[in-house]
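Students often ask why we bother encoding 3D structure as a string. The short answer is that it lets us treat folding as translation between two languages. Here is a chain of 146 residues written in the first language.
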Amino acid sequence: MSPKLQFALTAITGQNSRLPFVIELSEQNGGDARATKARQSAKIREIGDALRASGFVTVNQQAQVLDLCRSTAWNLVQGNHKGTGLSSSLIKRMLASPRLPDGVRTKITEYVAEKSAGLYGGEKFRLRRFRAKLVFPDTEGRAVRK
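And here it is in the second language, the structure alphabet:
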């Protein structure tokens, strides 16, 4: 695991742990934007696969468990989300859902770690801004990274 990815995982999870997944480094694709977008769409579709594996089959069920509207849930599950991927506010909303199954939470966390590490492209300042927006206030008002 690359040091950038390990840093991103530590910043998101708050612990120095390795999630059980393998990541292709973006250099393997030679910076091909289509391959990068395809990899990002595939990772977003994995969130939908995890939802279905957890028993949430209909769009209504998926939208409820993700705490999203139906159209956003549909686009997410299909992997057709906008070109920049999932926004930090959308991710925070999904992770804050009390009904979110652990398998889905893991897939979202993997996506955040990979996006934070720059595996889906993006300028450095946008990646920094994405990471900065993923701060959750704790019960005492302090900023806590998830």
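Translate back mentally: The chain has one domain: 3-21+33-145. Keep this in mind for the problem set.
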